[in-house]
Amino acid sequence: MARALGPQRRLLAVYTGGTIGMRSEQGVLVPGSGLAAVLRTLPMFHDEEHARACGLPENTLVLPVSPDQRVIYRVLECQPLFDSSDMTITEWVQIAQTIERHYGQYDGFVVIHGTDTMAFAASVLSFVLENLQKPVILTGAQVPIHALWNDGRENLLGALLMAGQYVIPEVCLFFQNQLFRGNRVTKVDSRRFAAFCSPNLPPLAVVGTDVTINQELVRKARGKAPLVVHSCMERDVGLLRLYPGIPAALVRAFLQPPLKGLVMETFGSGNGPTKPDLLRELQAAAERGLIIVNCTHCLQGAVTSDYAAGMAMAGAGIVSGSDMTSEAALAKLSYVLGQPGLSLDCRKELLARDLRGEMTLPAGAKGQPSLSRSTLGRGVAQLLTLSQEADAVRDAVAPSLACAAAHAGNLEVLQALVELGSDLSLENFNGQTPLHAAARGGQAGAVTMLLQRGVDVDSRDEDGLSPLLLAVKGRHRGVIELLRAAGACLSPGELEDVGTELCRLASRADLEGLQSWWQAGADLGRPGYDGRSALLVAEATGNLEVVTFLQSLQGGAGAQASGPEVLPGVY
Ligand SMILES: NC(=O)C[C@H](N)C(=O)O
């Protein structure tokens, strides 16, 4: 819920480029560096006296909100700076990762961005950033901040004030005195200062003489669930606008692999040509597993099933995009297709749900996945229908359900629990987390999903056991690899009696068991209780395969540590 905050909040402004900081070079506008230096010279953006009195570092700016309230902020300038026409999912994911890296140090974030693709950026960020507890506000300008008559100062000031004074835990876009939900906006004017509109949702806040917050529209933060950054967004998605007489052959060409998902802009309330050849192409693509989302090309209103021409679209296996903007639909498609291990049906069900406030569900629609395929799913589906007062019941049973789902590798149920607001790192009655359960069950898909959600890879259960040890015991090599890549390590306690265990495996010629320990980072040269090594035991037993394997490790190719890969970022 939005609320005003006390003094001295800290913000990070991520400057990515756009007209706001552009300069004219040979008669055209190009992205310009040094925005922070410009802001430092403008008293409305920086109180130098206060900064000096507090001994703040050079790179810190002070926004003088009122005589007794200041917002401290830093501007992080990206390299390179972009005209937003050049930005892609890759840069937006990097912005999200930058926010993640600084999430603990700041109370809110402002993303300074070009306006041309800002609606796409805001939509993508809204799906990449899950469980936001802090505001992320995009803004920019139609005219550079250096110009005498410009909108950049007002927009940036508004964005900083909104992020610095209110907790609106969403990805928003601030422009011309209005704060919009980011995934509801579209750019509607290339010249006027009022460049954006939110056709199907009123603004979350309006700034006039007073600031009016539309409290009932602001999304609530989900308990204390940690921020999750979904970096895995599908790039092979597309956007196609139908027009009268569009040839089926053109549609066929567009739908070819590697395309995995399409947002199709249709006429009016979701109607399209009913020509059999066109419908056949759409149907064939849907049968191949390509997901098509139907969005209206009208600025306002939703896709309905009022017309036969609309029903024909639905008949071709096309999912309704309701009142989503095309920008939001494309971002959602990229997010849903990027989630690992989900079935086609589950992806379609997710698309039909309101995940980040991006769509208005038709009255009466629950918008939840049909989980009726398993008993576990039915249990979770019932939980989803419980009223708000039953939160405590949900919180009590969700960890055990999550463990059961993880052990069974049921990603649909895990996803439904996430939608319910469950924290997938919570422990069940014996201290095991869903990651323990997934590792014990050898469920690589569930392990991947949980790791992606940032659960603790080295959590210990009541007996001090880690997910990695459970995977080793089950000889789940794929899971061991995933856990190791995420930085999992066996603890000294878990390795205490490993020598004896290795000798036991060697005596049984259990090559897979030995390989699992090796893969998990154990030193296979450790002696057992009687001082003999696994190699000695294997030689005595006479199993050549095991002997060869253990000998090969003696040449220095022993336990390998495979820590997490750190990708260099542009920002
Ligand atoms: N007003 C702007 O920011 C437009 C600019 N071309 C951009 O999107 O970067």
From TrEMBL:
<dbReference type="InterPro" id="IPR037152">
    <property type="entry name" value="L-asparaginase_N_sf"/>
</dbReference>
<dbReference type="InterPro" id="IPR040919">
    <property type="entry name" value="Asparaginase_C"/>
</dbReference>
<keyword id="KW-0808">Transferase</keyword>
<dbReference type="InterPro" id="IPR027475">
    <property type="entry name" value="Asparaginase/glutaminase_AS2"/>
</dbReference>
<dbReference type="GO" id="GO:0003847">
    <property type="term" value="F:1-alkyl-2-acetylglycerophosphocholine esterase activity"/>
</dbReference>
<keyword id="KW-0378">Hydrolase</keyword>
<dbReference type="InterPro" id="IPR027473">
    <property type="entry name" value="L-asparaginase_C"/>
</dbReference>
<comment type="function">
    <text>Exhibits lysophospholipase, transacylase, PAF acetylhydrolase and asparaginase activities. Can catalyze three types of transacylation reactions: (1) acyl transfer from 1-acyl-sn-glycero-3-phosphocholine (1-acyl-GPC) to the sn-1(3) positions of glycerol and 2-acylglycerol (sn-1 to -1(3) transfer), (2) acyl transfer from 1-acyl-GPC to the sn-2 positions of 1-acyl-GPC, 1-acyl-sn-glycero-3-phosphoethanolamine (1-acyl-GPE), and other lysophospholipids (sn-1 to -2 transfer) and (3) acyl transfer from 2-acyl-GPC to the sn-1 position of 2-acyl-GPC and 2-acyl-GPE (sn-2 to -1 transfer).</text>
</comment>
<dbReference type="Pfam" id="PF12796">
    <property type="entry name" value="Ank_2"/>
</dbReference>
<keyword id="KW-0442">Lipid degradation</keyword>
<keyword id="KW-0677">Repeat</keyword>
<dbReference type="GO" id="GO:0004622">
    <property type="term" value="F:phosphatidylcholine lysophospholipase activity"/>
</dbReference>
<dbReference type="GO" id="GO:0004067">
    <property type="term" value="F:asparaginase activity"/>
</dbReference>
<dbReference type="InterPro" id="IPR006034">
    <property type="entry name" value="Asparaginase/glutaminase-like"/>
</dbReference>
<dbReference type="InterPro" id="IPR002110">
    <property type="entry name" value="Ankyrin_rpt"/>
</dbReference>
<keyword id="KW-0012">Acyltransferase</keyword>
<dbReference type="InterPro" id="IPR006033">
    <property type="entry name" value="AsnA_fam"/>
</dbReference>
<dbReference type="InterPro" id="IPR027474">
    <property type="entry name" value="L-asparaginase_N"/>
</dbReference>
<protein>
    <recommendedName>
        <fullName>60 kDa lysophospholipase</fullName>
        <ecNumber>3.1.1.47</ecNumber>
        <ecNumber>3.1.1.5</ecNumber>
        <ecNumber>3.5.1.1</ecNumber>
    </recommendedName>
</protein>
<feature type="domain" description="Asparaginase/glutaminase C-terminal">
    <location>
        <begin position="236"/>
        <end position="339"/>
    </location>
</feature>
<dbReference type="Pfam" id="PF17763">
    <property type="entry name" value="Asparaginase_C"/>
</dbReference>
<comment type="subunit">
    <text>Monomer.</text>
</comment>
<keyword id="KW-0040">ANK repeat</keyword>
<dbReference type="InterPro" id="IPR041725">
    <property type="entry name" value="L-asparaginase_I"/>
</dbReference>
<feature type="binding site">
    <location>
        <begin position="115"/>
        <end position="116"/>
    </location>
    <ligand>
        <name>substrate</name>
    </ligand>
</feature>
<keyword id="KW-0443">Lipid metabolism</keyword>
<dbReference type="Pfam" id="PF00710">
    <property type="entry name" value="Asparaginase"/>
</dbReference>
<dbReference type="InterPro" id="IPR036770">
    <property type="entry name" value="Ankyrin_rpt-contain_sf"/>
</dbReference>
<dbReference type="InterPro" id="IPR036152">
    <property type="entry name" value="Asp/glu_Ase-like_sf"/>
</dbReference>
<feature type="domain" description="L-asparaginase N-terminal">
    <location>
        <begin position="11"/>
        <end position="218"/>
    </location>
</feature>
<feature type="binding site">
    <location>
        <position position="84"/>
    </location>
    <ligand>
        <name>substrate</name>
    </ligand>
</feature>
<dbReference type="GO" id="GO:0016746">
    <property type="term" value="F:acyltransferase activity"/>
</dbReference>
<dbReference type="GO" id="GO:0009066">
    <property type="term" value="P:aspartate family amino acid metabolic process"/>
</dbReference>
<feature type="active site">
    <location>
        <position position="115"/>
    </location>
</feature>
<feature type="repeat" description="ANK">
    <location>
        <begin position="430"/>
        <end position="462"/>
    </location>
</feature>
<comment type="similarity">
    <text>In the N-terminal section; belongs to the asparaginase 1 family.</text>
</comment>
<dbReference type="GO" id="GO:0016042">
    <property type="term" value="P:lipid catabolic process"/>
</dbReference>
